[in-house]
């Protein structure tokens, strides 16, 4: 079985590298091509690449694992994610696509923040780039942990060896093809994830005589649905739903909106993306729930709930199908890592190096600097991922909250509130990120636990950031006329598009 699965994974690796080579030959000669695919990405690729880069390994490992260990409490996380993704498509996507082009063709999120206030190298650019590099390094390490666990659980390889295989392939095609390679591979990976998350729970359910038997077996380990909602408590429900707030501030997701070929294509991307997300989340939750019932009935021996998808793939399917399903896990992991590496390297080369040293580089030199940035971020993330005891969902949760609090209010107010000032933006990023770090890391409670044990850190972080932006902006000067004009042009183009 392992031999056949290795063949499937090898073919998958070859396909990803081939896409990287294709993209290298078609879109990486200039900066716009390397970072945004020349703003010519189709709605289909936009939707599935946004979904695949969003969901990562936690969709096939973290979320089923959450359902396996938390039971029906995990449904609130899913509800928050679906609502947040939908609002992101409705509120952020169309305005950001138009506004970033009007703002002197901003190519990165920090670049947009800076040009939004008519400041080519404003402090908001450097600070937001630093936050991106910090939290994306943590986020990338979560993906690498998932990769290491995958090879360890599926093939019995050493964890560190699996980690190195994962990072090597991702870095290779990201270095080659930039944004176009990342988007095209994400599209393929999104299709694989969709099929896998429909197939696995349906086949696993056939191991029971009926759905009722499956639910009865699951009920031996998890609290019934009605009782679960009563026992969670209001703060726990708010914490779970608050995952949806994070969407407004995730650079690797909203950069897809900047790259889509036209604002008119966003509606199609939204319909495709939300349909994909609904099916895959249901499949992930069902995998975790059926996994609880399967373990109770058949006692296969499972040490880590986050590997239930791998267990099903190995036990229930022919080796050829098993190899495909294992490739789906790796696809989910690699899709997000590649997006995070690209956004981080873009910030390092475009927003930090050029802004800090005021270096004027030609297009090819800047692309080369971006590739060096990919290697740098990957190296640091790999070192952080050497600890294989870390929870994937926990690592993702910390990084997700950091971005959501630091950038979420800023993105929304940048697009909808002309009165926001440069000082307000800087204060919002610092206060949001700082609140998340304090809330999640410092043992401030009497029992030595952080405040995040009471409520998810994105909630106070988002509130503090939004409040700070508004207060500091009102104290500062009115924004310049250029900003007001950009808002008017954006409104007019959106009216024409609809």
Automatic annotation (TrEMBL):
Subcellular location, principal: membrane
Transmembrane segments: 6-24, 74-92, 124-147, 159-180, 187-205, 234-255, 276-295, 315-344, 365-386, 392-417, 424-442, 454-475
Superkingdom, taxonomy of origin: Bacteria
Subcellular compartments: Cell inner membrane; Cell membrane
Catalytic reaction equation(s): L-proline(in) + Na(+)(in) = L-proline(out) + Na(+)(out)
Keywords carried by this UniProt record: Amino-acid transport, Cell inner membrane, Cell membrane, Ion transport, Membrane, Sodium, Sodium transport, Symport, Transmembrane, Transmembrane helix, Transport
Membrane topology: Multi-pass membrane protein
PANTHER family in UniProt: SODIUM/PROLINE SYMPORTER-RELATED (PTHR48086), SODIUM_PROLINE SYMPORTER (PTHR48086:SF3)
Family: Belongs to the sodium:solute symporter (SSF) (TC 2.A.21) family.
Functional note: Catalyzes the sodium-dependent uptake of extracellular L-proline.
Family annotation (NCBIfam families): Na_Pro_sym, sss
Name of this chain's protein: Sodium/proline symporter
Species for this entry: Shewanella litorisediminis
Encoding gene (name): putP
């Amino acid at each position: 079985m392992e031999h056949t699965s290795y063949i499937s994974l090898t073919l998958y690796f070859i396909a990803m590298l081939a896409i990287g080579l294709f993209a290298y030959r078609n879109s990486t000669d200039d900066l716009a091509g390397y970072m945004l695919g020349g703003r010519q990405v189709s709605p289909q690729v936009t939707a599935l690449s946004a979904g695949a880069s969003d969901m990562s390994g936690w969709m096939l490992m973290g979320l089923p694992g959450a359902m396996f260990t938390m039971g029906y409490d995990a449904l609130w996380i899913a509800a928050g994610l679906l609502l947040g993704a939908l609002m992101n498509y409705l509120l952020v996507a169309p305005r950001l696509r138009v506004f970033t082009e009007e703002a002197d063709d901003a190519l990165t999120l920090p670049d947009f923040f800076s040009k939004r206030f008519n400041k080519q190298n404003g402090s908001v650019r450097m600070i937001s780039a630093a936050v991106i590099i910090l939290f994306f390094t943590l986020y990338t390490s979560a993906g690498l942990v998932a990769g290491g666990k995958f090879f360890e659980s599926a093939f019995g390889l050493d964890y560190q060896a699996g980690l190195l295989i994962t990072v090597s392939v991702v870095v290779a095609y990201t270095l080659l093809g930039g944004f176009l390679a990342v988007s095209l591979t994400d599209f393929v990976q999104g299709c694989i994830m969709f099929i896998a998350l429909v197939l696995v729970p349906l086949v696993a359910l056939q191991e029971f005589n009926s759905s009722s038997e499956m639910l009865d077996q699951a009920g031996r380990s998890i609290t019934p649905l009605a009782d679960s909602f009563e026992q969670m408590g209001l703060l726990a429900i708010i914490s779970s739903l608050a995952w949806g707030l994070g969407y407004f501030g995730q650079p690797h997701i909203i950069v897809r909106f900047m790259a889509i070929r036209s604002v008119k294509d966003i509606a199609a991307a939204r319909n495709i993306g939300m349909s994909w997300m609904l099916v895959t989340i249901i499949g992930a939750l069902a995998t975790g729930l059926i996994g609880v019932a399967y373990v109770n009935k058949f006692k296969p021996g499972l040490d880590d709930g986050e590997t239930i998808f791998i267990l099903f793939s190995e036990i229930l399917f022919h080796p050829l199908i098993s190899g495909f399903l294992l490739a789906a896990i790796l696809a989910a992991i690699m899709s997000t890592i590649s997006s995070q590496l690209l956004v981080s390297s873009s910030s390092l080369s475009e927003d930090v190096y050029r802004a800090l040293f005021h270096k004027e580089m030609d297009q090819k030199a800047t692309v080369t600097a971006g590739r060096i940035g990919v290697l740098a971020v990957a190296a640091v993330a790999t070192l952080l991922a050497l600890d294989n005891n870390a929870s994937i969902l926990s690592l993702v949760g910390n990084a997700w909250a950091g971005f959501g609090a630091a950038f979420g209010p800023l993105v929304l107010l940048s697009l909808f509130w002309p009165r926001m000032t440069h000082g307000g933006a800087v204060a919002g990023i610092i206060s949001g990120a700082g609140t998340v770090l304090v809330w999640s890391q410092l043992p401030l409670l009497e029992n030595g636990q952080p405040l995040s044990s009471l409520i998810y850190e994105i909630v106070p972080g988002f509130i503090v950031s939004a409040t700070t932006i508004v207060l500091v902006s009102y104290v500062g000067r009115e924004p310049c006329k250029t900003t007001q004009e950009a808002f008017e042009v954006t409104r007019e183009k959106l009216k024409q598009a609809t």
